[in-house]
Inverse folding.
């Protein structure tokens, strides 16, 4: 940091010992990671974090940044040091909070948000006898013991939208959960982990929904099913959960996402779903250059990827083209099928192939939070939001940067190797 600090004794004395103990346990592997991480609860009156750089709400990097966290684990203030009275030569306004100065060059970033994952799900997460079932709730298949959640946390992912597998036309309801607490000792579902358990409703189009033993068996059959069931749902008077949710879906009361892997599926969103009152966020893992105009016509953010080093030119250049046309992009984090690092790899590759760096940072933080319907809790630095953030050694969309620390609800849950 280039700012003059008053005193770091409190940080070293109180924080350092706790971090050292937790880090030693992580390295030794003598106890489950959750036990080691739980040992460090820093906040009393809250914390003040000072960083050379931080990711601002619009995705641009802010220099000499300050993040003030209150005792509830919520963000109290965020901005530049000069704006908040922490500039060189100015009096410290810590208000009794711990003041933590990050290493030189470190970047403070909102916790990464992954949408489209199947973490925590066991025993199957889609109905195999019904093509349309909006009442299925993925949270009912929760399994908190999966070790892959720890890997997600280590990669800087603090929240994830878990979805039913997109094998039905109407697959069910997604849930948005925090990745902390995690590990085999947290098999229950603590309330502070759940950001949202009521959506979005997940739809799917294309080959993944075709069932040669049932309905539909083709793209034409799937679209005919949508026309029939969605049109009848508007006037249906059933009071069972599935009927109620279908009426809410077609009336626009419920937000939704749709898995549209191919160009024809994206076109069907505009031609078939939108005229029926359903305007979902599109998940498209193909080449957005082939359907950019259709994706833009939805008027919603678009979820792309995940991208990899073997992705084709259209997939790599597509995010930049779509972003430059005014469409907000989020990158899919399809864990555990895709590695947790695939989220940052997608953003890094998109930036390398022309996507604006600020838009690429938003694509793994604020935009996926908005897609998941939890931007009032996570995804950016703003007063009142949960203090979920990651300390990177450099720019989070640079693959040379590493995760140093992860914080959830104002508590450091993953110490870094620097300690």
């Amino acid at each position: 940091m280039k700012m003059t600090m008053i005193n770091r004794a409190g940080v070293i004395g109180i924080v350092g010992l706790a971090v050292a103990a937790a880090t030693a346990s992580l390295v030794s592997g003598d106890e489950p990671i959750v036990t080691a991480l739980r040992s460090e609860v820093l906040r009393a009156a809250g914390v003040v974090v000072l960083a050379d750089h931080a990711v601002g709400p619009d995705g641009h990097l802010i220099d000499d940044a300050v993040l003030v966290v209150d005792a509830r684990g919520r963000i109290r203030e965020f901005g530049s040091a000069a704006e908040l009275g922490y500039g060189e030569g100015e009096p410290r306004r810590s208000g009794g909070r711990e003041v933590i100065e990050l290493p030189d060059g470190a970047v403070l970033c909102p916790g990464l948000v992954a949408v489209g994952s199947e973490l925590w799900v066991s025993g199957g997460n889609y109905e195999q006898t019904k093509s349309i079932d909006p009442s299925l709730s993925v949270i009912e298949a929760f399994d908190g013991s999966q070790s892959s959640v720890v890997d997600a946390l280590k990669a800087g992912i603090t929240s994830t939208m878990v979805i039913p597998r997109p094998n039905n036309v109407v697959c069910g309801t997604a849930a948005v959960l925090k990745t902390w607490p995690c590990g085999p000792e947290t098999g229950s579902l603590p309330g502070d982990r759940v950001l949202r358990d009521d959506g979005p409703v997940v739809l799917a189009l294309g080959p993944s929904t075709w069932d040669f033993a049932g309905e539909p068996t083709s793209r034409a059959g799937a679209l005919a099913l949508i026309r029939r069931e969605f049109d009848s749902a508007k006037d249906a008077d059933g009071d069972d959960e599935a009927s109620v949710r279908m009426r809410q879906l077609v009336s626009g009361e419920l937000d939704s996402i749709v898995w549209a892997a191919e160009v024809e599926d994206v076109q069907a969103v505009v031609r078939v779903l939108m005229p029926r009152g359903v305007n979902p966020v599109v998940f498209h893992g193909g080449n957005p250059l082939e359907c950019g105009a259709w994706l833009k016509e939805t008027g919603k953010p678009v979820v792309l990827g995940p991208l990899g080093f073997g992705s084709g030119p259209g997939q790599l250049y597509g995010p930049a083209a779509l972003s430059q046309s005014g469409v907000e992009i989020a990158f899919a984090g399809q864990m555990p099928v895709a590695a947790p690092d695939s989220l940052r790899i997608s953003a890094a590759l998109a930036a390398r192939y022309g996507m604006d760096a600020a838009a690429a940072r938003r694509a793994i933080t604020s935009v996926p939070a908005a897609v998941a319907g939890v931007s009032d809790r996570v995804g950016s630095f703003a007063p009142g939001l949960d203090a979920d953030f990651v300390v990177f050694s450099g720019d989070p969309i640079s693959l040379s940067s590493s995760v140093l620390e992860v914080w959830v609800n104002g508590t450091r849950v993953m110490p870094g190797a620097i300690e």
The two ends are 17 Å apart (CA to CA). Residues 112-371 form a domain with the TIM Barrel fold (CATH 3.20.20.140). The chain has twelve helices and 18 strands.
